[in-house]
Amino acid sequence: MKWNKIRLSPPQILVFGFAFIIMVGTILLMLPLSNMSGHALPFVDALFTATSSTCVTGLVVRDTGLDFTIFGQIVIMSLIQIGGLGFMTMATLFSLVLKRKISLKDRLLLQESLNQNSMEGIVRLIRKVLKYSLVIELCAAIIFAIRWSADMPVGKAVYFGIFHAISMFNNAGFDLFGHYQSLMGYVGDPWINLTTMVLIITGGLGFIVLSDLISYRTNPKLSLQSKVVLSMTVALLTLGTLIIFIFELTNPKTLESLDWGSKIWGAMFQSVTSRTAGANTLDISSLRQATQFFIMILMFIGASPGSTGGGIKTTTFSVLLGAVIAMVRGREDVVLFHYRLAQERIFKAVTITMVALFLIIAVTMTLAATEEGSFLSIMFETTSAFGTVGLSMGLTPHLTSFGKLLICLTMFAGRLGLLTLAYALGPKKSRELYRHPEGKMFLG
Fold first, then answer.
1. Distance CA 300, CA 384 (A)
2. Burial bucket for residue 166 (CB in 10 Å: 0-12, 13-18, 19+)
3. Whole-prediction pTM value?
4. How far apart are CA 111 and CA 31, in angstroms?
5. Are 72 and 29 spatial neighbours (Cβ–Cβ below 8 Å)?
6. What gap in Å lies between CA 1 and CA 205, rounded to an integer?
7. What are the angstrom distances between the C-alpha of 308 and each of 105, 303, 315?
8. What is the mean pLDDT of the chain?
9. Whole-angstrom Cα distance, residue 261 to residue 274?
10. Model confidence band, residue 115 (pLDDT cutoffs 50, 70, 90)
C-alpha cells in the first residue's frame, strides 16, 4: 500500500478507492463471460450491479441467479466481501500476509474507513475483523450447505451456502434463487431464518461491538458505544417485529395465510433485514402502506458505525433521541448510560440526519419527475439505496438509465457516509480566527 506518495486526504482515498473497485467490477461484469446470454452487459446495468455489490446494498436490475454465470456471480460475491469489510481492510490483509509494515498513512486510512476516533490498536482491530468475519461466514456457509443439500445437489448447496453466507453477513441481500424471490420460499424455515438473522445482526452491530461481546467473558465491561448499539438494536428489532406483525396479521397477501410459526418468523425476519440487509421472506410490494412506510424508517436508521450496513446509524439516532429527551426535561446535557456527550457529537448527529434527509428528498423528487411509479415506491427505493438495504417494491428493474445512475450515486453516498464524502469533495478546512457575537431567536 503506497498511499504515502499520493497527496490525498484519507476521505479522498476512500472515495477514489471505492470508485476504483466499482469500475473494475463494472468492467468484469460487462464481459460476455459473466452473462448467461453470452453478450456484453450494458454499461449502466453493469455499473449498477457493481455499485450495489460494492456498496453492499442488494438492489438489482438483473436477476443474479438467472442472468449471471458462475464467473459473474463470483465477481459479485468478491465485490460484496471487499465492499462489506472495506477495501482498506482487505489491503491490510494482504500486507499482513506479506509481512509488510503498516505505515502511519495506512493507519489513518483504516481509522477513517472503520469510523474510529483513534488509531490506537487499529491494526489489532483489523486482525479481529478479518478473523471474526471469516469464522462467522464459514460457520454459516456450513449450516446453509447442510440445509440446502436436502433441496439440491451437494456441490450446488455448498456454493449457495458460501455465496449467501458472504452476502448476508455483509448485509448485501443478494441471492441466487432467481425470479427476484429472495428467501420467500423459506418464510417458515427455522434454520434459514435463524442463521440469516444471526448473520445480518452480527454484520450490522459493528466490529468494535462484536469485539467487545466476544471478549466479554475475559473482560466483562462494555464500552459506551457497545451499550448504546446493543440497547438500540434490541429496541428496534423488538419494536419492528411487533409493528410488522400487527400491521400484516390480517393481510391475506403476507401473514394471514401462514401458520402461526411462519407468521412470527416472517415478522421477525422482516424486522431484522429492514434495517440493513435487503433479503426478504415476505413480498415487499404486497405489504400494507403503513408497513412499507415503517420499514422506510428502519432503513433510514440503518445499522451501527464500523459495520457492513448503512443508514444514519443507530448511534446517531440514539444521540438525537437523547437530545430530545434532554430538551423536554429542561436539561443542558445529553446523557447516555451515565456519560455526558460533547456538543460536537450532537452537532454531528444533527448534521448527518439533516443531510441524509435532504439527499433522500432531492433524489425522490428527481425520480418522481423522471420515472413511472407511485411516490411511495420511489421514496422506498431511494431510502433503500441510501441505507444500503436493498429491499425493493419492484421499481428498480424498470428504472430509466438516468434513474439507475442516480440510485448508484445514492448507494455510493450511503455506503461511504455523507460526512466522508463532504470531507473528500469539499474545500480544505481552515482555522477560524474569530467568533461572531451571540444572537438570540425564538424557536418552536
1. 8
2. buried
3. 0.89
4. 35
5. yes
6. 28
7. 23, 8, 15
8. 86
9. 20
10. low
